[in-house]
Amino acid sequence: MTESRRLAILAHEKFPDRAKTALGVMRYSDDDTVAVIDRDTAGSRVHDHTETVPDAPIVGAFEDINEEVDTLLIGIAPIGGGFDESWRPDVRAALEAGVDVVAGLHYFLNEDEEFATLAAEHGADIHDVREPHAGIGVAEGRSDEIDAEVVLTVGTDCSVGKMTATCELVTAAREAGIDAGFIPTGQTGIMIAGWGNPVDRVVSDFTAGAVGEMLLEKGDEHDVLFVEGQGSIVHPAYSAVTCGILHGSMADKLVLCHEAGREVVHGYEDTELPPVSEYVDLYESLANPVHETEVVAGALNTKDIEDDAAAREAVGAFSEQIGAPATDVVRFDAAEIVEEL
Amino acid sequence: MTESRRLAILAHEKFPDRAKTALGVMRYSDDDTVAVIDRDTAGSRVHDHTETVPDAPIVGAFEDINEEVDTLLIGIAPIGGGFDESWRPDVRAALEAGVDVVAGLHYFLNEDEEFATLAAEHGADIHDVREPHAGIGVAEGRSDEIDAEVVLTVGTDCSVGKMTATCELVTAAREAGIDAGFIPTGQTGIMIAGWGNPVDRVVSDFTAGAVGEMLLEKGDEHDVLFVEGQGSIVHPAYSAVTCGILHGSMADKLVLCHEAGREVVHGYEDTELPPVSEYVDLYESLANPVHETEVVAGALNTKDIEDDAAAREAVGAFSEQIGAPATDVVRFDAAEIVEEL
């Protein structure tokens, strides 16, 4: 990971429940969050709303921050990934103060004339994490040449908790004394890590190549690399990205992520999920011709199960279905499966 | 398909053996090829070199063409997809004559200042077929709502003949009285059809969506739609595109394409191809959770087998391995498998 930054996180009207990126960055990045910017909850503190992340003051505007900040991070995304004009005064104020801006929107702030001019005038950088760099190309099929073991999270669907599982596994591995690295593939993961290729935004022919490039870059710096997976291999829209990451990572081990109770594809309710055990066969048989791999553990997201005992039971059933140890990495402890990896 | 055009096909120094796009368009499109432009073979005729396509004169430059032409098509591609400056006088002459230009290069002619200016001045269109249109988005998972039956060619590797098989099947189906349509997904296919989305060049998240959009557009115009496949589901670099087309097309039937004697992945010689029978399982098990499908026929490319009897034998063995009828659609006859579809 890069040097730690001092962040202001913009999350107007959405903190904390609809600010998934803000919470992810606060929870998992090495950066310090100096302040959250949310005009609705201004005046309160982060811990008044959630204790799952470090505390910080909440202010109404960038100009109300009293401490030193080096980066403004856009921690929310409206549907469609557009830029909300009500955020413009905060971005303008940050750039005028020479503060870098990081955003994961489909609307690239670098292409906004006012912002580009201000950034140039004040020596600030704008980092649109969803804009792939120009050097990404076709995969070379060399990800298996690196020293590090590669562990990839794969899912039964979108939004089952692959990014969270990956980050929790990195943390648990480090706590167990393992030199673990994180390979981000999506916008929140990239904001957490401070670097990375937005694999879902590259040219489709370069999907595997975008992953391979990151592994070749970091492959000799760590003993284990945890790759953030995306989508599902049987998703009606996003399976291409999943398949590209599977073959591009040439993963040695897979962790299958699932949400308890999920029965149909999120947003495609006509399409039923196949049985969990079938995913194990699908991922392994598809990966093996390129690089031998195995599902060695499972991560079950039990957030919709109220009772801890019932959650334990669900985890046990999931473990039996996939034929490997499993846990809920948030409710219980990722350390329970780290020894498998 | 669109109205038929009167084409000049540029193929400098490469006609016919290294001009795959030129030959594909001459063989399969509804367009008339008025002339081929190749400074090396200028003065001869197409049939002096190959009789697999309609005859036409070969000239040394666009300006040497005596007949009326409405479109100049770039029928060759250097490695890397760049523009060869030695072609500039021909493109310039075409645009100055108000003739449209079609190209499938990575270098977009629309972004070339001289060409863009000439096109505007003379009312000519430049069509860079590799540039996806801006409206392509995430797949809706509705390709199964169309009236037409969908047949997709899938492969054991790149460059085994999927595009050729698809075109031969369309032709054979039409000869059998079936109202068949062609859904192109790559640059040559798009040039043949005169329309289509370059699926390997769209944003990876939109891979399935780029296919679905075409099926929804053409789905009620034909009884059977033949979708051109790309790559292979276990390709180290291109599997993402293959997977996106598989799920985006929601194909009812699959035709498995293979090249006799191919044992390792083209360009990735360390990676062995799995047994042909395993591909049948892989494609079916991966497709089924989204849309039920089956490999109903095989197309074996036997171009490296000299003897017809040996080729027949290879086709027989291939058919047995995949558990479905097979043929070589070029050497023998696509009609042999059309009845399966």
Automatic annotation (TrEMBL), chains A, B:
<feature type="domain" description="D-glutamate N-acetyltransferase-like C-terminal">
    <location>
        <begin position="138"/>
        <end position="338"/>
    </location>
</feature>
<feature type="domain" description="D-glutamate N-acetyltransferase-like N-terminal">
    <location>
        <begin position="40"/>
        <end position="132"/>
    </location>
</feature>
<dbReference type="InterPro" id="IPR035086">
    <property type="entry name" value="DgcN-like_C"/>
</dbReference>
<protein>
    <submittedName>
        <fullName>Putative NAD-dependent epimerase/dehydratase family protein</fullName>
    </submittedName>
</protein>
<dbReference type="InterPro" id="IPR011669">
    <property type="entry name" value="DgcN-like"/>
</dbReference>
<dbReference type="InterPro" id="IPR035402">
    <property type="entry name" value="DgcN-like_N"/>
</dbReference>
<dbReference type="Pfam" id="PF07755">
    <property type="entry name" value="DUF1611"/>
</dbReference>
<dbReference type="InterPro" id="IPR027417">
    <property type="entry name" value="P-loop_NTPase"/>
</dbReference>
<dbReference type="Pfam" id="PF17396">
    <property type="entry name" value="DUF1611_N"/>
</dbReference>
